[in-house]
Structure formats: structure tokens, C-alpha cells
Amino acid sequence: MRTALTVLGVIIGVASVVIMVSLGIGLNQLMLEMYSSYGDMTTISIFSNARYSDSGSDSDPMYLTDEVMEQFKHLDHVTGVSPMLSCYALFKQGVYETSIDITGVSQEYLEKIPLGQGQAPKEGDPMKLIYGNSVIQWFRNSKTGKGYWDTMELPDVDFMDKPMFVIFDMDAYYQSQGGGENAPKPPKKYMVETAGVVEGGVDDYNSYAYSVYTEIEGLKAQLKKIFKKKPIPNQPTNKKGKPYPYFIYDNAVVFVDDMANVTEVQKVINDMGYQANSQMEWIEQSQQTYDIIQLVLGGIGAISLFVAAIGIANTMMMSIYERTKEIGVIKVLGCDMGNIRNMFLMESGFIGFLGGVIGLMISFGVSYAMNNFLGLGQAMMGVEGDISRIPLWLAASGVVFAVFVGMAAGFFPSLRAMKLSPLAAIRNE
Amino acid sequence: MGEGKKTDALEDKVCQGSDSDPLKKRTPIIEVKNLYKIYKVGETKVYALGGVDFTMYRGEFCAIVGPSGSGKSTLLNMLAGLEKPSKGEIVIDKVHIEKMKENELVAFRRKRVGFIFQSYNLLKTLNAVENVALPLSFRGMPRKKRNEIARKYLKLVGLEKQMDHMANAMSGGQQQRVGIARALAVKPRIIFADEPTGNLDSKTTMEILKLMRKIVREQEQTLVMVTHDNHLASYADRQFHIVDGKIFKIEECHHHQEEEIEG
Fold it and tell me: Is the dihedral of CA A78, A80, A83, A88 positive or negative?
């Protein structure tokens, strides 16, 4: 009975530690999942300051060019590089139209985009577009001038099966729209094939949802073809106001082999003089916060385990008092002192083990209940997912720790038993 | 101080037809020299034993007799290595035990000594066989072998039918027989018995006493029994009378064969 109560104490202690730590882990992982839904965590976005602010210095501005891309590619831990070049264009299908950026990215980048429909274009394919799953919201009816946000009805736009016409030369388009008799002819429309649509429903947010992507070399070729000698919009000019003979990218993305190396690579790129950003900055910050939360939660659990340890020590003391005579007798009969100590250590270790195992089972039960019936994950983080997670290492270390606590609590009582005088046994009461 | 008195007390008194020759042939097993045990109670020193010398021989049945508080139990405890002497030497089987550390003493008891207690001190949670086999298990003997030995000794003490009884389901006499079997099972050179019949009625007392003496004789073991009862002590080969921590006299009695003085 007394042992059962002691075990109960250990059960509660272990269960509270495991549940608290599992909550900490769950919160942490939910956070990671949340961030990864915003974008790939192993990518670093790079901007050039020179792109937006003219420093006016004599040296060449630090533009992101193919040459720079090549440098990035050779950094340690970098698995790939994608320059990003966007150009504003008008999309038209039937009565619906919209103007958005087309972002040119590398083949590698395209292949990372999760597609709900279609397939990523293969290398060497003619220019094809990948639409974000929410892009459809931007289309407006050119006759009524109303779009999705006015009517809350999805425009009747079909990326996959109906042709999409794209006008790249926006200046010429606006001039032609300007009215008047001497308005120039509207620029040429191009029919561009659709490669695919990003995974997810219209309202599901992800980092690709509102953009249109294409393979960058194809985009560059297309732009050269359209603008010929005219300056390509959005490309900077040199001091004499002439465009550069090569493309200058708006920004770039670097892929890193592992999350752990992201910060390091980011620092190197920053040192090179570019602006590098990644999810890791945010993650590291919030990870610190969650580490503290986990520590506090674990601490609360540890207190109850500590109380349980005192309970074990107390039980062992009592049982040694009760068995003083037996201990003495076996000592007189020649039982090794080490054996006596081990006997009691085993007993207290077993109390710890039993409590640990049952406590763990209860933890799994409580964890299951929290995840499936309470919807705490949704309430606290706004993300779908399990808030309490018990990985294998936590389960294993929970039991091991309980055994350890049991034996530690039983250590001094067992020493006491070992040192008991055998005289106490043969003294007649 | 006590030197003069001690020599007086050492004169052996012979009570029945003694043959003095065997004394020299017999091998000493317990030798005690000038043994003191002093307790400190506050400022004053209490002499539980005040200088004791004697020798016990192999195959002998010795009784240590004295009134309560005479120091006889203290003497037994020290012989068994349960208490440390304040001064003096104890040589058992040619080994000095007064300087041994506690774990050495445990090993010493395990190898050479058997114990019979007044209150039997059987483990209540074990049955008779397991109780007898217990000290054998401390020697690391495998279960099957030690249970076999335990059964043999239980038969010897006449408990064939109670082998599987739990310790507390037996009468006092039966329990003490288990206790004797337990002491014998390890085949010790010496068996210490502290008031072994103190909790038994007179009829059982006689049975137990005769049993002990018979077995000890057969196996050539030394039995040291502590008692306050002069009558019980008279069953021994020699009686060491202790009064106030000193040996008052040593009486030698020879009981011829198995015929008893009284029934």
C-alpha cells in the first residue's frame, strides 16, 4: 500500500515532466511548421542595396549579376542559387485581365515549387508559367471593372486549359490605352503556356501563392526579343544613363544544405556586402523564447518529480526501519554489505521504473487527448497540428530518469541499511 | 587492578571424572587474551568485560553462564565479530578478528560461523527450506544445490514434514529447529547460540539442547552457548561462569556417551 502510493507519486511526477516537455517540444515544432509554411527554411534571400539606392560612389555598384551568382554557388554549404528577375506584365484571358509581376527563377527553384496541377517545365522548354494558387484573385472583369474582391466570386479564369495572353511592354500598352487618335497600336500579345498551378486552394496561403513564376533564361530571352534595343523596364542604367549589357537581378535566393548552416552562410553573404535574409533569423529569436517556455514547463514538472523523489526516500527509510531485524539477521548470517545496499537500490530503482512506465503511459494518453479533443494547437498558435509531442527520446529518457531518481532517492537509505548494526537484530525485544 | 583476581578465577574446577590428557591433544579454536570492553556512559566508564582470558577447543560444547548484565552476551558478540573489543585479542581458527574491518567480519562470519538466536530470527516471508538455504545463498551457491542441502539438514533436525511451511506458521520449537538447521547448513567450525532455548518451554528446551549437542558431537563442531540458567549450562562440556565482566570460574563436566543426567 505504501509502495503503491509512492509509485503513484512517481507516476504523477514523470507524467507531469513528460507532458510539460512534450508541450514545449510541440510548441517549438508548431512554430517551425508555421515558419516553413511561409517559405523554405533553408533558403536565404539576397538583395543588393545598390539596386534601390544610388550611392553615387565611383566604384561599380554591388549589383547582383550572373558573376555574383557564380560566387554564391561556390560558398560552403550552398547547394544552389537562383537569381530572381521580375517584370511587370498584363495577363488577359477572355474578359478577365490583371497586371502582375512575372518572376524569373532558376530551374532548380521552379522544381522546388509544390504544384497542385501540371508539371514544372523541363530544361530547354519554351517559356512556360507557373501560377500561384491565389493569383486568380487578382483578375478583374475588364468590362465591369469588378474583380474578386468586389464580387467575392472567383473569376472564370482557367490557367490550365484556356490560353493566356501576356503583354510585356506595359509602357506601350498604357500609351495605346491613353486614347486619342494618334495613340500607337497596342503592343503585341504573346500566348504563354501554363506549366502548372501551385498546390493549395484559393485561400491557402503559402510563399508562392500570389506570384507567377517562370524559368529565368526563357524570360531573359523573351525580354530581349520584345524590347530589342529599348531599355528593359526595371533594369538600372549606368552613369551615362545607358543600360548595362547584362541583366541585373532584383534579388536572388541561395539554397543551403541544412538549417543549421543557414546562419553561417547568411553571415558570409552579408560580409560580401549584400543584404541577406532568411527565416532562420526569426526562428532563432522565437526558438529562444520557446526554449525558455520549455525550461519553465520542464521546471514545473521537475518539481513534482522532486517531491516524488522525497516520497521514495521516505518509503525506503520506513521500509528499512521495518526490516531492521531482517537486515541485521542476514548481516549476521554473512550477507555482503554491498548486497544489502544493492537490494535496497534495486527496490527503489524498481519503484522509479514502475512509476516511470505507468507515468509514461498516462502521458501518452493525456497527450493524445490534448491533441485530438481540445484543439489547443489551433487555439494557441493558429496552426493545425499536435501541441503535445512525445518523441522516442523523451519517452526513453523519461523512464531512465525515473529509474535514476528512484535510485538516487534510495541511495542514502540503502547506505543506512548497509551500515545498520547487526547487533540490533539479535538483541531480544 | 583486576590482575590478582583474574588468576584466582582461572583455576578450573572439575565436576565429573575428568581425563586431563585430551586437553593437550585438542586443537584450540577460540583463543581470547586479556579482553576488555568498555562503554562510556557520560563521563564514567562502564566495564562490560574487564580482562578475560580463555581458550576453547575444537569439538567442544561450551556454555557461557552468568546473570543478566554480567557481560556474557557482550562476550559472545565479540567472539562472533558483531562488536569490537576495546582492548585485547581474539584469535579464531588462528585468525585475529579484533582488527578486521566490517566487510571482512561479514566474510568471516559467512565462512566460519553459524548462529542460533533466542528469538529464532527466521525471515517471515520465506519457508523453512528457504530460510535454511539463505546463508548458503550468500556464498553464491546455486538454488538447486542449496535447497538440497537445506532439506538434508531439516531432516536431521526432524522437520521432514514442515519443510514447506512458512516460518511464522510453525511453533517455537519448530522454528528453533529451523534456526539450528540454518546454523548447521553452512558447516561452520563454530556455532554461537545466544539463549537458544530462552523462549521455549522446558520440554522443548531439553529436546533442542540434546539435538544441538548430538549434532555438534557428530560433526566435530564447537558450540558456544550463552545462558543464564545453570541447569542448562550443565549440559555443556565446560561452563564459563561470568560475573561482572570477569570469568569467575571454569567448570568441566564430562557426560558419558549419550546417557543424560536428567530427563
Answer: negative
pLDDT tens per residue, range B19-28: 444 554 678 8
Interchain CB distance below 8 Å, B121 and A339: no
Question: In chain A, which residues have their Cβ closer than 8 Å to the Cβ of B109?
Answer: 332-334
Band (pLDDT 50/70/90 cuts) for residue B235 is: confident
Query: How many Cα atoms sit within 13 Å of A341 on the Cβ side?
Result: 11
The residue in chain B having the minimum alpha-carbon distance to the alpha carbon of residue A422 is B82
ipTM field: 0.79
A330 touching B, CB under 8 A?
A: yes
> A359-412: per-residue pLDDT in tens?
999 999 998 888 887 766 566 656 667 778 888 999 999 999 999 999 999 999
Tell me which residue of A345, A346, A323 sits closest to A412, measured CA to CA: A345
Position A256: which residue type?
V
In this complex, the residue of A331, A334, A426 whose CB is nearest that of residue B194 is A426
Q: What is the largest CA-CA distance in chain A?
A: 127
Domain locations along chain A: 2-35+285-426, 43-257
Contact A207, A130 (CB under 8 A): no
Tell the residue number behind the cell numbers 566495564, with chain if given.
Answer: B47
CA distances from B90 to A231, B54, B70 (A): 114, 10, 19
Q: How far apart are CA B60 and CA B188, in angstroms?
A: 13
- Select from A394, A393, A391, A399 the least CA-distant residue to A356: A399
Q: What is the pLDDT of residues A330-358, one digit of tens each?
A: 888 888 888 889 988 999 999 999 999 99
Q: Give the span between the Cα atoms of A409 and A307, in whole angstroms.
A: 11
Q: Which residues of A touch B138 (CB under 8 A)?
A: 330, 333-336, 339
CA atoms within 13 A on the CB side of A241: 0
Domain segments of chain B as ranges: 3-252
Report the CATH fold assignment for B3-252.
Rossmann fold (3.40.50)
Given an 8 Å threshold on Cβ–Cβ distance, is A326 in contact with B134? no
Q: Round to whole Å and give the CA distance between A56 and A65.
A: 19
**pTM for this entry:** 0.66
Write out the three cell numbers for B47. Answer: 566495564
> According to DSSP H, which parts of A161-214 are helical?
170-177
- The answer to whether residues A14 and A360 touch, using CB atoms and an 8 Å cutoff, is yes
A369 CA to chain B: closest CA distance, Å? 43
Residue in A with minimal Cα distance to B101: A337
Q: Which of B163, B205, B251, B192 is nearest to A332 (CA)?
A: B192
Paired sense of beta strands A115-118 and A190-198, if any: antiparallel
Q: What share of chain A is helix, strand, coil (3-state, %, to 5)?
A: 50, 15, 30
Alpha-carbon distance A426 to nearest alpha carbon in chain B (angstroms): 7
Cell 520549455, located at residue: A294
Give the chain A residue whose CA is nearest to the CA of B118: A428
Nearest CA in chain A to B138: A335
Q: Among A426, A427, A429, pick the best mutation site for testing chain B contact (most B Cβ within 10 A).
A: A426
Asked if B195 and A428 come within 8 Å (Cβ–Cβ), the reply is yes
Cell readout for B153 is 539438514
Q: Contact A331/A418 with Cβ under 8 angstroms?
A: no
* Closest residue to B106, CB basis, from A334, A423, A426: A334
d(CA B37, CA B28): 23
